Amino acid sequence: MNPSIDSVEKVVLAYSGGLDTSIILKWLEEVYGCEVVTFTADLGQGEELEPARAKAEAMGVSEIYIEDLREEFVRDYVFPMFRANAVYEGEYLLGTSIARPLIARRLVEIAAETGADAISHGATGKGNDQVRFELGAYALNPDIRIIAPWREWDLGSRQSLLDYAEKHGIPVEMKRGTKSPYSMDANLLHISFEGGPLEDPWNEPASEMWRWTVSPELAPNEATYLDITYERGDIVAIDGTPMSPATVLAHLNGVGGANGVGRTDIVENRYVGMKSRGAYETPGGTIMLKAHRAIESLTLDRGVAHLKDELMPRYAEIVYNGYWFSPEREMLQVAIDHSQAFVNGRVRIRLYKGNVEVVGRESADTLFDEAIATFEEDEGAYDQSDAEGFIRLNALRLRTVARRAARGQGEE
């Protein structure tokens, strides 16, 4: 036996209870001869997790971790990311990306708690998630051992997985009806769809694919209004009702989905080098991004706001690529959080057939001065004649360049 395999006695597995991770559980026991600890996280995916416990018990697992991490997920990961207004490649709100560091952190922590030698995950060797899980784990424990079965085993097809399950007595749920052709991943921030018909970028997503949002054409004919309250850049109440972070996001998902908000269909550049087509439903996140930018428009200084916008694509790329626990993300987060000190107030949002419109905003910390901005008589708050010198100074270099160009034409 390989000495590296022989040295593994206990592994913590990120376990969903589905076919893939159940096979991984048995494969780890068979190939590594080790004990397996299962960890299942509730990040708001909307599935009952107790069946995962029952299945793990049926497979002989004695240490089973099932944890409700919804509040921690939104408070410590989603909210900080939305303070940055992070969007990857102009469209993706990073719903899958931001869930991975929390799972990686708990895998490492549980390994320490249980005395495990390694951690394991079910991410494939083609995707981003393997990178995100493992970069996060190494950042938290540089000596952690990571086992990625999809990069080791020869079970490369769906049929080979089913054959392995049958050989080892792993129960396979044969659900009634037609199986979804898509690979789906869900948490409180979004649900993603990949694979199947989506692998051809020309194919329009089927209407029955979407789970959280109604079609904008079928959304209510009356607009829905939301009054969103912010403190230091985070939502603390909706329509005057205080809410916890996870409750905020769940509420916005429900209201946004009912109004057809949050569908996205994109081709993105994976960190591992390939392009990937995916469809996403992010109703709550879509509302949060629009509302947060609205309250910042009142409360952030122009220089700070523009610098944040310059830094945002880099921040989003850091999150997408799996560097949540990196020094650069932590450095940027300090600056972003500092900028939110006065991002307080209320934003009024109008939802109508897939659209999110800002229709009002107010803040005790506003930098908007009506006495200066008014088109009416401003009683001396702004001397319009000052603009002439401002323009002439800023035009100096442009006029110099134009004169040089004119001289060059004259010489021809």
Protein described:
The structure is a single chain. 42% of the residues lie in helices and 19% in strands. It has a five-stranded parallel sheet, with helices on both faces. Strands 10-9-8-13-14 form a five-stranded antiparallel sheet. The chain is elongated, with a radius of gyration of 26 Å. Helix 8 crosses helix 9 (283-299) and helix 10 packs antiparallel against helix 11. With 412 residues, the protein is of the alpha/beta class. The model has no long low-confidence stretch (mean pLDDT 93). The chain folds into two domains: 3-82 and 98-167, 3-Layer(aba) Sandwich (Rossmann fold); 183-300 and 342-362, Argininosuccinate synthetase, chain A, domain 2.
Key terms:
412 residues; alpha/beta; Rossmann fold; Argininosuccinate synthetase, chain A, domain 2; 5-stranded parallel beta sheet; 5-stranded antiparallel beta sheet; 13 helices; 14 strands
- Helical amount: 40-55%
> Rg, please?
26 Å
Shape: elongated
Number of domains: 2
Distance between the termini: 82 Å
List the helices and strands and how they pair.
Blueprint: H1 3-6, E1 10-14, H2 19-32, E2 35-42, H3 50-58, E3 64-68, H4 70-83, H5 100-114, E4 118-120, H6 129-140, E5 145-147, H7 158-167, E6 183-186, E7 191-194, E8 224-231, E9 234-238, E10 241-242, H8 245-258, E11 263-269, E12 275-281, H9 283-299, H10 302-321, H11 327-339, E13 345-352, E14 355-362, H12 370-373, H13 386-411
Parallel strand pairs: 1-2, 1-4, 2-3, 4-5
Antiparallel strand pairs: 6-7, 7-12, 8-9, 8-13, 9-10, 11-12, 13-14
Helix pairs in contact: 2-7, 4-8, 5-6, 8-9, 10-11
